[in-house]
């Protein structure tokens, strides 16, 4: 919707249900004429006032002394000769700049990563959304564990007129309900990705293997593979998290099917393709991990 000209103008000029207007530097006429533009990758800097660091509880002077965040905004359109950005990229950049940290900025987990204009290192996962923060985190997933676990793993969550943490997820595990292709894609590349991010964070950042396993188990409960199949690469990633978290039996129960999927790719895809290379790597790693189990 942000690629239309009417929706940005609604955000800029109206206050539905008492919400604030979204700050933009573009005039209405400029929004009407906003279109894909030639673009060379460049570093964008966004000033960060001291009070914003305080609000996020950031005390590290190596971060606060910078007084800014810097990110590389790449082209999202074009070929080897001419590259550009979409109207939505320009608009998101402008909103981020004009907001000046006055309001939280979120990117939905259901949106393509290419819509984040290069801000990934400054995004923290909160449930099914990524929040823009003034702290760079480039050593893996940045997850707000309390918010995300309450959202994804909340127990006894029921419809309520009052605010409460936790998502009500239903229907995806009902064999009687048909899911079309787009819904299956959302399951794999939005919902499952978020559960896997939380599980990986528990395992690597907090060394909490029990919660990593619990998170993947909850993912399978809500989005069973018998209902929505996983790509063999994602399936292997899940199996590897189980392995590294110590759930070796669950790993073994998954790996045979993954190896079959990978071998099918070897016979059906073009030699040397990305899919074939991924299948070869996964088959090699699967053998190594299975051998390591046998020797223990």
Write up what this structure looks like.
The protein contains eleven helices and eight strands. With 296 residues, the protein is mostly helical. The protein folds into two domains: 137 residues, no CATH class; 128 residues. The strands form three sheets. Strands 1-5-4 form a three-stranded antiparallel β-sheet. A hairpin with a 2-residue loop joins β7 and β8. α7 packs parallel to α9, α9 runs antiparallel to α10 and α10 packs antiparallel against α11. The longest helix has 24 residues. The radius of gyration is 22 Å and the shape is globular. It starts with 5 loop residues before the first helix and ends with a helix.
Secondary structure layout:
Layout: H1 6-13, H2 28-33, E1 37-38, E2 42-47, H3 50-55, H4 61-64, E3 68-73, E4 77-78, E5 83-85, H5 87-99, E6 106-108, E7 123-126, E8 129-132, H6 145-153, H7 181-204, H8 209-222, H9 232-244, H10 248-268, H11 274-294
Antiparallel strand pairs: 1-5, 2-3, 4-5, 6-8, 7-8
Helix pairs in contact: 6-7, 7-8, 7-9, 8-9, 9-10, 9-11, 10-11
Summary keywords:
296 residues; mainly alpha; 2 domains; 3-stranded antiparallel sheet; 11 helices; 8 strands
How would you summarize this macromolecular structure in one to three sentences?
With 296 residues, this protein is mainly α. It is built from 11 helices and 8 strands.
In total, how many domains does the architecture comprise? 2
Rg result: 22 Å
Helical percentage: 40-55%
Question: How many strands, which pairing sense, and closed or not: the largest β-sheet?
Answer: 3 strands, antiparallel
Strand content: 5-15%
Which class best fits the helix and strand makeup?
Answer: mainly alpha
- Physical arrangement of strands within the biggest beta sheet: 1-5-4
- Poorly predicted tracts of residues: none
Summarize model confidence as the mean pLDDT: 92
